[in-house]
Every structure is written in structure tokens, then in C-alpha cells.
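Report of the visiting student (M.T.), summer placement. My assignment was to run the structure pipeline on a short list of targets and document each run. The first record concerns Transglutaminase-like domain-containing protein.
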Amino acid sequence: MKHIKNFIVKTVITVTMMTIPTLAGQCELQTDCPIYTVKEGQTLTDEEQRAIEATIDYFIEHPEEDYIEISSKDFPSLSIDWYTNITKYKLNYLTDIYLMDAGNGTQYLPTTLTEPVEQTNYDNGRMDLTIKNKHIAQAIKTQNFVNYSYQLLPQLSIYNGMDEIEAIEILNNFVCDLITYDIDSRGDYVSIYESHKGVCNDYAYLFRALAQGAGIEAYYVVGSDHAWNQVIIDDVAYELDCCHNDYHDLVEERHYLYLLSREQASTYSSHETIIATR
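After the run finished, the C-alpha cells were exported:
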């Protein structure tokens, strides 16, 4: 990773239309972001858990492998539908939040990281299922990006128990300092620490990773043709846009669109409509 540029943290400046909350929680730093978790309300049986360990966990440890076979000898319930039900409907993936780079400046959302591609049945009743490693390598890159963001926080003077408002101020300025807006960049956020160039989604992904690492409830917001962030402070949603804030060279002017209500943010044409948050 390249050396992170120096940045300046100054007191929050009150700007017209800005309503900065006075109550906030305290930061609780995170140390690791898993590639997948079990969805809320779902549980895995012992057999299902073993199937995940035999496929997804195996590919995470061996991302160079393209395929693996599992057998009904080890998994009596095995079938394409059974495996697909686990991986598509019982698991959340890191790439559900941080979409994957398609290599041409666009991004896509994979529904699963592995895929059953061939079922082989035998006369004795045994069945083998070939599982393809579909997106594990990219998911690992995403995980590395998020975990590196988590590890940076102490260097940015973010600490356990810090007021969330203070932390958000530091992170907003840091993201503005790190990234130079470049419309010609590919927008590949996982390499933002090397390139230092990006577009709106790169600013938003980086802020989300850093804020989540600080224990702040933060989201990536998708508009009609733009991306920014939402944070939840004292159970109230506020919006900020590091990309827009970076239009201003002076740190004290970096609150152009900072901790606004939905009503306030919607007065800006690029933020009028929210299509999705993640």
C-alpha cells in the first residue's frame, strides 16, 4: 500500500441548511470483516455447515482452484437445489454490499460466490456435485480492502469510545484527502489506496468501510446517477457526500453536503431520489 497522505482535521463548521446532531453514540472498532455470514433469521444444519466449509471455505483458502466435487456419501441431502438454497438464500456476502468490478468501469452484484455446475448420478445411488469457484478471488480482494480500512483507523486517531460525530468528521476529511476525483478512472474501489483516483462510488465505498470499521452504522446510497452515504446517529438518518465535499480544496469548506436530513439532501438534483441503500 502507498503511504497515506497527510490530512487535517478541523472543528465542524456550521453551514446553511446543515443540522448537525448533538447526540451520538461511541465508536466501537471492528477488527475483521468476514466474506459471508448467515442471514438474520436463518440457521444452518450441521450438514449444511459442513457443505459450506467444504466449498466456500475451501475456495477461500485455495482461491486458485476452479472446481471441487462433493459427494452424497458425505452429504446425504445433496442435490443442486439443496446446495443452491443454502448459498443463495441462507447466506449474506460481503459482495452484496461492495459490488464487484466488472473490469470495464461497471459493477455487478453476484447472487452467490460458488455455483453447482454438474451433477453426476451413479447406479448405486451415489451422487457427486461439481461446484465452481465463481467469485471467491474478487471477494477476497474486497475483504482485503475492507480489513485494511479497519486497520487504518487507529492511525487516523479513531479509538474505542470516541464520539461518532468526531469520527465522522475525521473520516470525511480523510476520504477527501485520499481520493482525487477522476472521471476517467475505472472506479475500482478495491485498489483506491494505490490509485488515489476514483468517482462517486469509490468515495462512498471507502467512507462506508471506514465508518463501519469504527462501529458507526453507515450505508452506501444509490441515486439515479450518483452514490453517497447515509449514517444513523441516535436512531436518526443523515446523509453526507464525500465526493461533493471534495470539490472544495479547503478543509473548512468540506461540509457542502454533510450530515443533512433526507429532506435537505433531496434539494440537490443529484440526491433527489434514493434508489437503494446497502
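Helices lie at 46-61, 80-89, 136-152, 164-178, 192-195, 200-213, 242-245, 262-265. The first helix runs from residue 46 to 61. I thank the supervising group for their guidance throughout the placement.
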